[in-house]
Amino acid sequence: MPDGDREGNAGSAGLRSPGSSERVPLARKAKPTSVERIKQASDHLRGTLREALLDEAPGLSEDDRRIVKFHGIYQQENRDERAAHRASGEGRKAEFMVRLKLPAGQLTAAQYLAMDALADEVVYDRSLRITTRQNFQLHGVLKGELKRTIQRVDEVLLSTLCGCGDVERNVVAPPAPIAHDGHRLLHALAFELAEAMAPATNAYREIWLDGERIDSTREHEALYGEGYLPRKFKTGLALPEDDSAEVYDQDVGLIGIVERGELRGANVLVGGGSGMTHRKRETYARLGTPLGFVERANLVETVKTIARIYRDFGDRTDRRHARLKYVVEEWGIDAFRAEFQQRVAFPLEPWVETAPLVRRDWLGANPQGDGRWLYGIWIESGRIVDGPQRRWKTALREIVAAMQPTVALTPQQNLIVAGLAVEQIPEVEAILDRHGLPRPDRLDPVRRSMLACPALPTCGLALTEAERVADAITADFEALLRRLALDDVPFSLRITGCPNGCARPYDADVGIVGRKPGHYDVYVGGGLGGNRLGELHAESLPQSRLAAHLEPLLRGFSESRRPEEGLGDYYDRVVRGPGRRDILSGAKGDAAEPGTGGVGATPGAGGRA
């Protein structure tokens, strides 16, 4: 079995199900959450949205705020302006984030340009933001613009349905649109899964696209049921040579096995996921556990069956504990596998051994294998916007309009233009230069790999900054790594404004997780392979101390790392391995207590998002 085949992952409460012979839900609180009531009463995701779009209120009711998520929309507010609004007596001013659903991050040139133009019209700073799930977010859309926004999305054959909500989210996959059989086959599977996992309701078309209103009693949600899923559900696809999607971090991960140009099937992982709640030990990040190998013809049914198990046994009484990972962890993989096998007519086959998974960022020029080229463009924190020095929005519009490439969004918040002639590569780089954008080969490894969530001012869950301080935090680490002669060593850094883990901090070399305004927890020991969790190294450090706190560890790494060893690998060998050593003091001994800043502090845990 590969790394990550563990039932007791970091942060586990150690609970188990009654066993494979009993199929009963785990102990729950007295009653389902209010969200469950709202879903059940929503008339298949209609709520009163149609009526709400016609009234003059700037926001939506609590019930409609929950339901509109299934349509790819979050109600938010600009928290920078909250105090001024309250002082003026306005109260909270509602605005909305609209999230597209783009399987495998694939777009045509026309679709990209349409979204670029739409952002100019409805987004407060005209930006498009690429997420770590390969889709676009439009921030700051006003309620009066929502219907027109979704209609414009639909005009270019895109959708926002299930960009959010308690359903299958965007299916992520290796992004590069190359001729390689594996990538092409996984893109087809991503689109097939997206269609198969979509809800049956006609509500989206009725509310946003003026479709014919049907009698909802004729609708039947065979997959999701009346209450849909307990929480969100995420599927990721990978190849051994391209784990861009980081499949160990997914509710369902499929590692494709390609033989003789055909997708033979996939190794299936279940129960991964980031997210936690601070000081709630019953919540934790978790790596996916190997379930087995499934043939290609049965992969869609495999994902649907796992979703059904989650539908039936996921916790509907506590949303912090409502993810599939807790079912897998608390039952154990043997009980979960037995339940799965009872529900399907095909066998789970033994796991197929493969080469270790490799992360790819696809930045810079890469051959497609068909005589054409693709070029990966680094986007800082995924924000496509024009600033004083760096004009991403103008540069990308110019490239896409002139060259009409295929466009792909990556799980690293970057963008690929593909289908280029070799002579167009210098043209792409000239446009980047002209608009002040860095070429990928001129980036330090830490900046090249850095991810950050939006956090403030738009995210209601953010405890502190992420995207807006990412440049400064990255610069501190770059300076330290240069001083220690580590500036050419691959190094993954992820920054989030809260513990929900949207930028996947818990499996990075270094994860920076918001604790309170201006302060962060530091996780160390994940790595570039995506199949190992870091552990809590320090709690509530001020931003100015983040890099300096890790200097002793990084100095030891510089002095005694093995060839090709990343920081997470070194940490796992020297700190978490036999004879565990406290790098901060140089002493051998027991693990540090949580909160002391020692390297042995409680492992990173998981929760609500």
How would you describe the overall organization of this protein?
- The protein is an alpha+beta fold.
- The chain has helices spanning 34-40, 49-52, 62-68, 82-87, 109-122, 143-155, 181-196, 203-209, 299-313, 324-331, 333-343, 392-403, 424-434, 445-449, 467-483, 546-549, 551-560, 567-575, and strands at 73-76, 95-99, 106-107, 128-130, 136-141, 235-238, 252-259, 262-270, 289-295, 364-367, 373-377, 383-384, 406-409, 415-420, 451-452, 493-496, 510-516, 519-524, 535-542, 581-582, 587-588.
- Strands 1-2-5-4-12 form a 5-stranded antiparallel beta sheet. Strands 3-13-14-11-10 form a 5-stranded antiparallel beta sheet. A 5-stranded mixed beta sheet has the order 15-16-17-18-19.
- A hairpin with a 4-residue loop joins strand 20 (581-582) and strand 21 (587-588).
- The two termini are 30 Å apart.
- Mean pLDDT is 90; it is low at 1-25 and 581-609.
* Outline type: globular
Total helical elements: 18
Strand line-up of the largest beta sheet:
1-2-5-4-12
Report the sheet with the most strands, covering strand number, pairing sense and barrel closure.
5 strands, antiparallel
Mean pLDDT: 90
User: What's the alpha carbon Rg, rounded to whole Å?
Assistant: 23 Å
Which percent range fits the helix content? 25-40%
Q: Which ranges are low-confidence, i.e. pLDDT below 50, for 5 or more consecutive residues?
A: 1-25, 581-609
Q: How far apart, in Å, are the first and last alpha carbons? A: 30 Å
Portion in strands: 15-25%
